[in-house]
């Protein structure tokens, strides 16, 4: 396929607003110039197309989702414990210069070197194009989006509904925050009211500066799509955010691939990584990591068991057939086997990755059905290694500069 055609005006008028908009004009021309765009679609790292369609039939998947024996384990058995994030939690600057607050799923507020970065904000009740159907929240948002306070930049990993949320974007459009997004995603944002001058749209290994931060879009192994057609014309990305003293990594959605080592070598090591470890399945192994693969990605990025891993993309929505608690349990077991520091906050619980202790208790066990044979023994927290604090100078930017797209790497 050499390209794609936009929907006719009549069909566009009938589609839900949440479908967003197709890239056009100079945005589309820039997409077609991308070295990662070939034969009318974006390619995954190495030019290899990940298997984006489940290997089973629709009937097989429906049967798996509706199986009466496994279905009870895919949701919590009681209310998920949520930390009610308050202004007091966030008003005081982090003592170490870096604080993360996981809001559930892949939404994380990062306070890094005096700046505030919000990754993949999803405050909506459903990750769906319509408000009456689709995966529904399993826990409330820890605080209203309006109560979060000013944000310097919102970072979007890709355009799937559980990462790019129409209600959240429209709320943030009324602020003065900037948006850093992969190529093509800016068309959705403009369609929903974000002015073009507030959007920084990047290809892999391009960077933008926002105040004293450098944000770099890095490769991921996934796919895109919001509408009835999946034309693969918006890019997906992981992200590196570097300040004067700290570096962090957000995986977005991705299957495991060798490129994590390259990202770590070019931009790491990191004070913390936020790694997708949920919604995996043998039916789609190329596009979502298992907990063991997520821990392996963290180690690749770090070059060893240093820095803290924050598991993301789990607990908030039921998007796969595995038991609800398995992503947390699997990542905990993998991290402790590797001697890696893992942070396990409840949704809304702020923590500092370099602090003496981080949240480390398997809180989900109180509201999950125990596996046959009971829960594994809870071992003492793996302590942070002595080299957690590093001198990081590469990629620092002067405060107050005008954000711009620059080559990275």
UniProtKB/TrEMBL annotation:
Disordered: region residues: 67-88
Pfam families in the cross-refs: Lactamase_B_2
Domain Metallo-beta-lactamase: 115-314
Gene3D superfamilies: Ribonuclease Z/Hydroxyacylglutathione hydrolase-like (3.60.15.10)
Full protein name: MBL fold metallo-hydrolase
Provenance organism: Streptomyces bobili
